[in-house]
Structure formats: structure tokens, C-alpha cells
Design brief:
Order of helices and strands: EEEHEEEHEHEEEHHHHHEHHEH
CATH superfamily of the largest domain: ATPase, nucleotide binding domain
Strand content: 15-25%
Number of domains: 2
Radius of gyration: 19 Å
Shape: globular
Number of helices: 11
CATH architecture of the largest domain: 2-Layer Sandwich
Structural class: alpha/beta
Largest sheet: 5 strands, mixed
CATH class of the largest domain: Alpha Beta
Strand order of the largest sheet: 3-2-1-4-7
CATH topology of the largest domain: Nucleotidyltransferase, domain 5
């Protein structure tokens, strides 16, 4: 008998990815498209259409990672910061639609599971996962188990406060100075665009004048060429990332902090300044044992993790 494959979906603020996932984390029949952010029903309709497009006959289970707080007692998506998706009984709806067991998980939690079992955090018992993209997602592996809190809404690490009087957070979050508004890909885009406007003779300013999109891809491209405004922007964002990681190291004393998501592709351009801050600001001895590394599974971590959690459902986990 062939190894089971489940359908997994990773819903993000920018894109929806789906595919068939097996126990080794291999992804087949992959599909990716921009997220429809017109409203709850648009997101639900897109999810159902993408899942149906991946299915080829029967499949045994479905795992869905979403950028939302979740009440695991009911499988309800309670609220979302970066997409218009709230108050949705997602597990019940998808089980009714497809007739299979469904596991709903926060997308960063799913990424943490994947990196812990198959990626950069293999063998570690205490892991902090941060996903940098439209926002900053968080996942915690504590004593070798995914930590979900009392009802499943724990791990919103992007909403720790770094600056009491800082900028208002993104989307529906009413907080200020959160890690998400200072260290996400969106935050980097915003800062890069401002610097390009303020310094027209700099590398970012010249690229903008030439018609380039001033975004994280451009930042990484220009910073890879050497010092300049792009490097400064990444160092600034990396500093704030490091401040946030320092707090998390002090609270959780992890063996490893794994940084994933699309913006993590900046690699050491972003992580080197973060590591420097942690080495200076986190407490001894926690700062002496922690590693800060880039995710091994890259942008597929959330998708793979959603699949692994669906397979756990089949195993009775």
C-alpha cells in the first residue's frame, strides 16, 4: 500500500499554497495563487476551490494553516490581523464540504511543527519559530510539543510590544510598536520606500527612479552588492528583530530560534544584526546556548506542517 498523502493548504496574507503532502514532507500537485482578500466568503470560496483542484478522487484528511487566532475547541477562526477572516467555523464547513477529517492550525504553528520534525529544529526540544512575511507569525515547541495555550490561540509572537509609543500595528491589530510593525516584510517595504523618497541619490532612490518596485526583493538584491541604503534598512529591521528575539529568549530559553517566511530569504543580511542584538541584550545563560537560524524548509514550511498535522489526525493524534 502506498504511503498516505493528505491535502494541505497554507493560507497567507499574500498567497494561498496547496498540495498533497506525505509523512516525509514531500509535496506533490502543488498550486499557488494570490489570496483573495475581498472578505470572509471570498476566502472560503477560494479555499474550497483550491482544495477541490488538488483533489484527484478520494483523499483521507485535510490540513489547513491560516494566519488567524483559532479556538481549537470548535475549529473556529476567531480573528485575523492581515486578512479579512474572522468568526468562521472553518473546520465544520470544510468537513461538511469534503467529508474528511480536517485539522485547522495557525500557519506559524504549522511551520514550527514542520521545522521541528523535518527542518532546522530537528532534535531540539525547545524551539521558537518566527515567520516573516506580510506580518510576523510565531510558533512554540516547548518540551518537544507544540504549545497552543488554553484554547489554541497562543504563540502570537509578532504582537509582543517593542516600543510603547511606536507606530500603530497592521491590519486589525489596535496595538502600537509591535514586532510585526517593525520587523515584518511589510515593515521593511514601508521603510525602504520612505528611504528611497528621502534619499533620491542612494541605491534605493535610484532604483525607484528607474521604475523598480521598492520591496524586500530589491532590498536583498541591492544589499548583496555591498553597503548602501538597502543595507541600512535591513540592519534597522534586523535590529528590531533582534530586540524581539531577545525578549523571547529571556522568556522561553529555547535551544534554537528558527526564522522563516518569505522575508527570511534575506538570510544573514537580516539575521546577523539580529544575532548581534541578542548577544548583547538577552540574559546569560540563555543567550549563550541559543542558535538563530534560517528555516530549512523555506516558504513550504507552513504547507508541510499543515499536512503533517492532518496525518496526525489519521493516526489518532
Amino acid at each position: 500500500m502506498s504511503a498516505p498523502q493528505v491535502i494541505a493548504v497554507d493560507l497567507g496574507g499574500t498567497k494561498v499554497a496547496a498540495g498533497l503532502v506525505d509523512r516525509d514532507g514531500a509535496v506533490a500537485r502543488r498550486a499557488v495563487e494570490p489570496t483573495d482578500v475581498a472578505g470572509d466568503e471570498a476566502v472560503l470560496g477560494q479555499l474550497e476551490r483550491v482544495i477541490a483542484g488538488i483533489a484527484d478522487g478520494d483523499f483521507p484528511a485535510l490540513g489547513v494553516g491560516i494566519p488567524s487566532t483559532i479556538d481549537q475547541r470548535s475549529g473556529r477562526a476567531v480573528s485575523s490581523v492581515n486578512i479579512p477572516f474572522a468568526g468562521v467555523d472553518l473546520r465544520d464547513r470544510l468537513e461538511d464540504r469534503f467529508g474528511v477529517p480536517v485539522w485547522i492550525e495557525n500557519d506559524a504553528n504549522a511551520a514550527a511543527v514542520a521545522e521541528h520534525r523535518l527542518g532546522a529544529a530537528r532534535g531540539a526540544r525547545h524551539v521558537v519559530m518566527l515567520t516573516l512575511g506580510t506580518g510576523v507569525g510565531g510558533g512554540l515547541i516547548l518540551d518537544d510539543r507544540l504549545y497552543r495555550g488554553a484554547i489554541g490561540a497562543a504563540g502570537e509572537l509578532g504582537h509582543i510590544t517593542l516600543d510603547l509609543d511606536g507606530p500603530r500595528c497592521q491590519g486589525t491589530c489596535a496595538g502600537r510598536g509591535h514586532l510585526e510593525v517593525l520587523a515584518s516584510g511589510t515593515a521593511a517595504d514601508r521603510l525602504a520606500d520612505r528611504v528611497a523618497a528621502e534619499r533620491p541619490d542612494g541605491d534605493l532612490g535610484r532604483a525607484k527612479a528607474a521604475g523598480r518596485d521598492v520591496d524586500t526583493r530589491l532590498l536583498v538584491e541591492l544589499a548583496s552588492d555591498g553597503p548602501g541604503d538597502a543595507c541600512e534598512v535591513l540592519e534597522h529591521v534586523g535590529f528590531h528583530l533582534g530586540v524581539g528575539i531577545s525578549d523571547l529568549v529571556n522568556v522561553f530559553n529555547p535551544e534554537i530560534v528558527v526564522v522563516g517566511g518569505g522575508f527570511a530569504g534575506a538570510g544573514d543580511l537580516l539575521l546577523a544584526p539580529a544575532r548581534k542584538v541578542v548577544a548583547e541584550r538577552a540574559l546569560v545563560p540563555a543567550r549563550e546556548v541559543v542558535e538563530i537560524v534560517e528555516a530549512e524548509l523555506g516558504p513550504e514550511a507552513g504547507l508541510v506542517g499543515a499536512g503533517l498535522l492532518a496525518l496526525d489526525v489519521l493516526d489518532g493524534g
